[in-house]
Amino acid sequence: MAVFAMFLTFYILTLIGNILIVITIIYDRRLHTPMYFFLSNLSFIDVCHSTVTVPKMLIDTWSEEKLISFEACVTQMFFLHLFACTEIFLLTVMAYDRYVAICKPLQYMTVMNWKVCVLLAVALWTGGTIHSISLTSLTIKLPYCGPDEIDSFFCDVPQVIKLACTDTHIIEILIVSNSGLISVVCFVVLVVSYAVILVSLRQQISEGRRKALSTCAAHLTVVTLFLVTPLLNPIIYTLRNEDMKNALNKFMGRVERRGKK
Question: 140-154, pLDDT tens digit by residue?
Answer without folding.
Answer: 888 877 666 665 566
